[in-house]
Amino acid sequence: MNQRFSWHRRRGRTAFCWAAGAFVAAQLTASVILDYAWPAARFPYAAEVLGRAGKAGPRPDVVLFGSSRIAGGLRARDMGQELQATLGLPHAPLVFNAAVPAGDLISADHMLKQLLRRGVRPTLAVIEVNPETLNHYNEWFFFHVRRQLRWDDVPAYWRDVFRAGQAHRLLRARFVPLSVHRGNIRRACLAWLDPQLVESMPLEAWSLPVEKQTSETDAPHAATAAVAQQPTWDEVLQRCGESPTEQQRHGTLAGLEQPYRWLKHYRVGGASAKALERMLQRCRDHGIEPVLVGVPVTLAHRQAYTPPIEAAYREHMREVSRRFGCVFVDYRDRVPDSLFIDNHHVLAEGGWYFTRCLTREVLTSVWCGQHTVERPTEVGAP
Amino acid sequence: MNFPTTQFLGFFLTVFAVYWLLPWHRARMVWLLLASCAFYMSWHPWLILLILLSASVDYVVALLFDDVKSLTWGRLLLFGSIGFNLSLLAFFKYTNFMLDSANSMFALLGVEYRSPLFDNLLLPLGISFYTFETISYVVDVYMGRFRAVRNPIDYALYIMFFPHLAAGPIVRPRDFLPQVERRKRFDWYRLVVGMQIALVGLFKKAVIADHMPPVVDPVFKCPELYSSASIWLATLAYTVQIYCDFSGYSDMAMGMAHMLGFKLPVNFHMPYFAASITEFWRRWHISLSSWLRDYLYVPLGGNRGGKLATYRNLMITMLLGGLWHGASWTFVFWGAYHGALLSLHRAFGRGAQADTAGGVVGVSRHVVCVLATFLSVCIGWVFFRAQTFGDAGTVVTRLVWPTVGLNLHPGHVLLVGLSVLAVFLGHLAGTFLSWRRLERRLPAPALGGALAFLLLLALLLMPEASKGFIYFQF
């Protein structure tokens, strides 16, 4: 009886050890494969954008980096046409929107690095830099640990990940990647078998369907549904003078706790500030002219920028612009609240207004190598 | 805290590690009780007071049975305790249902009276399950089948043991309480067996059941829009979903209990291979059907009072069984439907079954019986799932009468097909293979590898958002 019992125990222990070993080995192998051989399964949105950028054909002249504010707020095709019309160019410069949803400077740096690796060398790089994206406490690590941080990034970022309270997500992404990325893996496998099958599968926010893009160079998503509509310029100007609707006020109030959360324990620094410096250095190394832009947000959102935050942000931007000899323009208060869908995403009209303002006031002169102003002062229709 | 979530995994691993690290048996039981309280409080912190109240009353009543010599006082205590438990259940589960029914009745009579509904009345998690457990404890002690427990921690653990707290299996005191007293010894083999059971449950729940709602929900929400083929597929999908959801939960509960050194009763035994409705109820939710048999059907007289009395008892038992599942007339109808099927089987089916033949004829007859039972059960699930009788009627009509309408996406058709196949193969393996014997022949590394593979597969195939268990709402 005792012999039988101890045989069972030994067998049970061996089976358990094999199960645990096989499980850990499979997950670690999968994490290495997903990091280095199949990153598209981790960040399909970026893979789609990079895939389009790497396609044969004309290379982009202007690339836009940032978050959904840029992805939905700047209209790539209109920007190119605007540049052509203002500068009298024979062809419209190709503008490429490489902004990603829930993006920040770390994801922007990732995108720039990947574009350079694919041989994309634009003339201009428009980079979104708002106070929240420079905070040393960076909530976007919630997405980064899942989408882009790899094993070799862990030593550089683990402190910031801990500070952002995302350590458990980092551990999950590292040690159980098959569970974390199961949705994307399944979708990719189904798409490989039969693309029709994927249509019925629910999609995550960071892997929105690429079919919604309006042009090859626009952002392949419509976080604000902005790019899908085509308002006339008169409509845009008319809406500028209107008060925000009840729905807009509701949208603004609904997300108002976000900026306060993003600006928690505010101090410029950490991984975000380093990412900006890396990006600017990369631009300088490859002869790209960077344009740093404080993108439009509503008045309610701007109220979260307290005077110390504002001072720290401005000081840092001045310092960075001086060090890297680049342009910084602050458009945070340039779009009226009536052109927003929520506290920090513009409507289609707002997107056009912002695109035209930025292109005419800044990009044309930077394109010609003449830009010197830190901030446009004239408010109103360009 | 739902079972197939990372949060619960963290909770269980902590409970498991501390439990086996504690050197004293009593300390382990206290730790389990604390963990069970924490588990329950993660759903709603205050409703734990309700379980404690219910359990305290029954604990005291059971102790009082020892001191009470008078039969009248004994009965009074027994009925008082049962009445108290059922009142709590009725108040929390059926108040809105009764008031709603009263409102409808008044409306039918043309009286414009609307009694206020308790919109914010919460349904305490597991109330239907732990109420039945407390009742069985009090009844067993009263009947002298079991001696009242002196230690309140043991009794509280019987009611609140977290693997079975939320949705069963409904545990009997004579099965569970002796296990609480027995000293536990960590055993690797027991751990591996527990993992096997829990993983099978996880696979059923997370991989099969949780993929069915996108097929089932839209069809049962607007059945009038869908074609007969879609309705058939959705009904099949729900048949698979409810089995995998509930038996998956039961397996996970059994597996976890096994890892902690406890044994919970088997709750499902290949129910869709039952050759008659009577056999179905011996294989489906066994802990409930045996509870209803022992504490309701038999006390009502069972089959001792002649044919008509037996049919009446079957109908009452199944009607109340239906009502136990949910506060809605569709559940009552579902119970009545099964009561009627059981009565019909008792009246006509038993003789036919006794006339068993061997060989091909016997096998063919058995297969036909299994298919007929399966079909009857599927039709029953329509009333179980539908929100209203109107929806259920539309579904049944379209099941019977070919109708054109929206068709399901090919991906969904494939999903349902694969799920039905998986359940069928599972039933086949469960019927003809002895997993225990097979598992003992496997070399330990192969067994470990198979466990890891099953876990990896479950993690890879489970949906991105975990869904709650269907039986948590009962």
What would you say this structure looks like, in words?
The complex is a heterodimer of chains A (382) and B (474). Chain A has 382 residues and is mainly alpha-helical. In chain A, helix 5 (105-117) runs parallel beside helix 16. Chain A has 2 domains: 1-37; 40-367, SGNH hydrolase (Rossmann fold). Chain A is built from 19 helices and 5 strands. Chain B is mainly α and 474 residues long. Chain B has 2 domains: 6-184, no CATH class; 190-473, no CATH class. Chain B is built from 20 helices and no strands. In chain B, helix 10 (213-221) packs across helix 11. The longest helix of chain B is centred in the N-terminal third of the chain and has 38 residues, at 71-108.
SSE ordering of chain B: HHHHHHHHHHHHHHHHHHHH
Number of domains of chain B: 2
Number of helices of chain A: 19
* Sequence stretches where pLDDT stays below 50 over 5 or more residues of chain A: 202-228, 372-382
- Profile the largest sheet of chain A: 5 strands, parallel
Most residues in contact: chain pair: A-B, 34 and 30 residues
Strands of chain B, count: 0
Which structural class do you get from the secondary structure elements of chain A? mainly alpha
Please state the second-level CATH architecture of the largest domain in chain A.
3-Layer(aba) Sandwich
Q: For this structure, what is the CATH class of the largest domain in chain A?
A: Alpha Beta
How would you sum up the major sheet of chain B?
Answer: none
For the record, give the distance between the C-alpha atoms at the N and C termini of chain B, rounded to a whole number.
17 Å
The rounded Rg of chain A comes to 23 Å
Dominant shape of chain B: globular
CATH superfamily (homologous) name of the largest domain in chain A: SGNH hydrolase
Q: Number of folding domains of chain A?
A: 2
Binned, the helix content of chain B reads over 70%
Shape of chain A: globular
Distance between the termini of chain A: 91 Å
Number of strands of chain A: 5
Under CATH, the topology of the largest domain in chain A can be stated as: Rossmann fold
